Amino acid sequence: MPDFFNMVEVIELVNDGITRDHIYYMEKKGFIKPKMRRAGHAKKRQMRSFTEEHVGLIRLIWKHKRAGYEWGKAFDLAQEERTQGSLF
Predict the structure, then answer these.
(1) Under CATH, which architecture does the 7-86 domain have?
(2) CA distance 61 to 55
């Protein structure tokens, strides 16, 4: 597994209808904070780099969002699920 994933890889890993706009919205709301790195010719373009932890959180938020919860509640449920999952 790579240390970081780009946006296309995250979308492929999460799948289930998630789009760039959904991930950008999660970032805007402060649910995730991907690292920004310079890329492209002359390093003028910034790209987001996501960790495995980001991908897992995005997957859980999206699962709850698809179940019908509002974004904030989906994030809360995802956080709760992550915490409970780490106990075992």
Answers:
(1) Orthogonal Bundle (1.10)
(2) 10
